[in-house]
Amino acid sequence: MVDARPHVTLPYSYCYGRSELGLSYIRLADLLSNRVQTDANKPAFVSEYENISKTYGELNDDVNRLAKGLIDLGLNRGDVVGLWSCNSYYWSQIQYACARLGLIQCSINPAYQADELNYVLRNAQVKALFMPGVGSKQQEFNKFGHGTTGKPKGAYLSHFTLGNLGICAFPMEMIVANYKYNVKLIVEAMNKHECTYLYGTPTMIIDILNYVETTGNTLPTLKGLVTGGSPVPKEMAYRVLKIIPNCTDVRVAYGATEAGSAGTISYQSDTLVNRLETVGHPLDHMETKIVDPGTGKTVLIGETGELLSRGHNQMIGYWRNEKSTQAAIDDKMWYKSGDLATMDEHGFIKIIGRTKELIIRGGENIYPREVEELLHKHPDILDAYVCGVPDVRLGEEVCAWIQLKDPNKKLTEAEIREFCKQRITYFKVPRYVLFVDSFPLTPAGKVKKFVMREQSCRILGLNEK
C-alpha cells in the first residue's frame, strides 16, 4: 500500500504528492458522458438569475445540440472559440460542447473593453465568439486569465490537466447566483438552495462574512469553504469559524492559471492551524520545491525562496508566446510561480509574497503579506493591501490601502502607524495610508497591485520614474 501522505526530501524544501490513485487519461466531454450514465437525473447546475435548473442528462442534451450548431457554423477540430462572459449556464454548456468537438475554448476576461477584447481575439485567432448575457494532451483551454500584471497571456491547458482536477469526478450541484458579483444575491441563493460548500477568493469571503455579520443572516447548511486566488489573511480564515460556526471544513488552496488553477491544498483531516495558516501541500502526483531565486538551488526546510511546481496540472505553454513560455517553464519542466514561500518538514507551504511585489526600502526587504496580515488584526479594518511606491532617498516606501468595517468610523493615518509601530520593525511601518471604499480587482476577485501602485503615485504626487 502506498503511503498517501506527501513525501518530503529532508532537509530540502521538496515535496511530492503521493497517491494510491492513478491519473485519468480522458477528455472532459467523456467525463460528462460517464457521469450521465450513472447520474442522469441528478441536479447538475442551477442559475438563479437565469431561472435555469438542469440535471446532468439535460446538460448533456444541451451540449449535444450546441455541438451540432457549432458544426453547422463550419468550425473544425483545433479552431478557437471565444467565450466573453460572466457567470452563466451557457458558459458550462459552451465549455463541454467545445471539448466534445475538439475545439479550443478561449476564456476571455468579461471586464475587457474594446481594445483589450480586440487584442485577445486577434492574438488567440478566435474563429467564433460567444457573448451570453452580453449585448491525453489534447488542447482544451486557451485561458486568458484574470492576471494582475500587464498584457494578458493565454495559458494553454489540456484535457489531461483539467480532467485530473476533479471536474465531474462526483455528482454535485453548481449554483450561480447572479451574472455579476453581488454579495446579497450570493447569500440569498446559498440559503435558498441549501449550499454546503463555497469556493471564493478572500475578497469575496470577507464580503460574505461582513454581510452575514451586519445583517444577521446565517448560512446554516454551509459545511465548508475553500479560498485562494490571492493571499488569505489568517484573521479572515479564523473569522469564518466565528461567524459561521457550522462551517468547520475551511481550507486555503494555492494555484495559478498556468498550473490548472490549483496546485496545493490541505486535507480535511489536517490540523486547524495547517488548514488555515498554510496553503497545504502538493496535490496528488504533483511536485513542489522552494528554490533560491538567484541560484535556482533548492533551499533548506524553513528557508524562503521561489515556489516551483511540476506535474499534470501544468499548462502546455502560453498561446503563441514562446518567449514567455520559456521564461515561465525551465528545461526540466518546472513552472516558476514568482511566489515567495516556505515549506516545513511535513510539506506544508506558506506563501510569503510575490517576488515582483517585494518592497526594498533602503536595502531592507519588506514582504507586503506580513504587513497586510498585521493590518487585518486591527478591530476596525475590514480589508487591507500593501504596495511599494517610489522614494527618492530610500528607493521605495510602504503604502497601505485600508477599507474600514464602518465607513463612518474616523481613523487617522497616525493611528494606523502607531498600531503598526507597536508590533513590527520600524522600516515595515507604512509611510503612506490611503483609506478606500474598494480595491482594483480582476473579475476573479484578485487585487491588482500594479494598479494600486499607479493610483497611489497619482494620489500622492509621486514620480514613478
Any chance you could write out the topology, listing elements then pairs?
Layout (H helix, E strand, L loop, with lengths): L6 E2 L5 E3 L11 H12 L3 E5 L4 E4 H17 L7 E5 L4 H13 L2 E5 L5 H10 L2 E5 L8 E6 L9 E5 H5 L10 E3 L6 H10 L4 E4 L1 H14 L8 E4 L6 H10 L5 E4 L11 E2 L6 H6 L3 E2 L4 E5 L13 E6 L6 E2 L3 H7 L6 E9 L5 E6 L4 E3 L2 E3 L1 H8 L5 E11 L3 E10 L8 H9 L10 E4 L13 H12 L5
Parallel strand pairs: 3-10, 5-6, 5-7, 11-12, 12-13, 24-25
Antiparallel strand pairs: 1-2, 2-16, 3-4, 8-9, 9-18, 14-15, 16-17, 17-19, 19-20, 21-22, 23-24
Helix pairs in contact: 1-3, 2-3, 6-7, 7-8
Q: Structural class from helices and strands? A: alpha/beta
Distance between the termini: 60 Å
What percentage of amino acids are in beta strands? 25-35%
Overall structural domain count: 3
Radius of gyration, taken over Cα atoms and rounded to an integer in Å: 23 Å
CATH architecture of the largest domain: 3-Layer(aba) Sandwich
CATH class of the largest domain: Alpha Beta
Count all strands and give the number: 25
Which of globular, elongated, flat, extended, rod-shaped describes the shape?
globular
Most strands sheet: 6 strands, antiparallel
Which bin fits the share of residues in helices? 25-40%
CATH superfamily of the largest domain: ANL, N-terminal domain
Stretches where pLDDT falls below 50 for ≥5 residues? none
CATH-defined topology of the largest domain = Rossmann fold
Output the strand order for the largest sheet: 1-2-16-17-19-20
Number of helices: 13
Q: Please state the average pLDDT score.
A: 90
